[in-house]
Amino acid sequence: MRYINVPCEACGRPFAEQDDVVVCPNCGAPYHRACWDAAGACRHKDEHASGYVWASPLPQNDGIPAAAVPEKNREETLSNGETIIRCPRCGARNYQHDAFCLHCGAGLSQRETGAQEGPRVYERRDDEDTFDGPPRITDEMLHNFQRYGGLDPDAEIDGIPVCEYSDYVGGANPGRMIRKISLAERFGKSSTFLGAALLGPVWLLYRKLRREGWVIGMAMILLCLASGILQINRPFVQLVKKLAALPAAAQESNMSPEDLRDRMTAMFEEYTETDLTKAEKLRAGIGEGLQYLSFMGTSLFSAARGMYFYRRKAKQDIMQIRAESASMEEYRYNLMREGGGSAGGAVAGLIIAGVAFVCMTYVPLFIVLLYF
Fold first, then answer.
1. Judgement on whether residues 216 and 363 belong to the same structural domain of the protein
2. Is 357 exposed, middle or buried (0-12, 13-18, 19+ CB in 10 A)?
3. Considering Cα of 104, then 105, then 110, then 116, what sign does the dihedral take?
4. How far does Cα 328 stand from its chain's mean position?
5. How many domains is the chain partitioned into structurally?
6. Which domain holds residue 47?
7. Which pLDDT value is given to residue 211?
8. pLDDT at 21 over 80
C-alpha cells in the first residue's frame, strides 16, 4: 500500500497497511473510508476549480509524488479566525502556538523558516523507519510541557509571551495552567477549568483572585445560613427542645446509656414520621435547594468562570509589572512574587467553607435554643 504513514486529510492519522483508503477523484487527496463517508466530500473541494492537486507531505512514499505540504497550505484559518498549523513532517493539524506536533512529535519551530521536516523530539523504540507503538518522550519535550504546556516559549497569548506567563504562574509544573490559559484565549469565557470547582473560594483565593474568592465565599455562607433557617419548622423545634431537656431527665431518673440511646432513637423516628404542612414542606424544599446551590452552584460557577477571571488578572498584573520594572531581573522577580499561589489564601478558603457548613448545621440549633 503506497499510502502507508501518509496522514488522512480529514483526521490526520497516518494510514496503516490494513486501512481502506478513499482517494478524491479530483485532486487525489487520500481519506479513511469512514472519514470520507462522514465528510461527504473532499475538504479541498473549494480549491478544485483552481486546479489544486494533492501532494504527499512525506519526502518519499512508494510512487506518490514527493513533495512536502505546500507553504501556502501549511497554515489554515478556521471560520472562527483561529489559525491551525499543519505539521511539516506528518501533515497533522496543530494549534498555532504548539511547539511540537501532538501526533508525531516533530518540532514545529521551523515552520516559519520553510523547513520540510522539523526535528524529531520523540525517541524511537527500535531502528525501524516507522513507529510501532507509543513513542518515548525525550527530556526536551517533557521539560517543555512542564514549563510551557507544550507551547512555543516565544508565542504570545493576549500579547504576552508564554515564557513570561510561566514565570507568573510559578510552581513546579506551570505548563498545565498555561495550557488552560491558551484554551481560555481560544474559546473565551466558555473555557472551563474543573480544578476551580474545588470548593470554589479555595482555588480562587489560592490563585490570589481575592475579590472573586471573597464574593463567592460570602455567597456560599449566606446561602448556607438561609438554607439552615428555612429548614426550621415545628417538628424540628420540638425535637431540639426534647433533646435539650433529655440530659436533665436522664440524670434525674438514673437512665442507663442503652435507655438514653433508645429514647433518642425514638425522638428521631417521631421527628421523621411527623407530617409537615404545605408551608413547611415548601420552606424545607427551598432550604434544601439552597443547600445544594451553596456548594455545587458556587463550585460550578468557579469552574465555568475561574479561568476567565485568572486570565484577566494575569494579563493586568503582567502589564502593570512590565511598566513598573526597570530591568529584566526586576521584571522576572516581580512576576514570580505577584503570581504563583498563596497557601494563606487556600487556608482562608477552607475556613470559609467551614463557616458555611457551621451556618447550615449548627446555627439553626442555636436559633431554636435562644428564641423558641
1. yes
2. middle
3. negative
4. 31
5. 2
6. 1-67
7. 92
8. yes
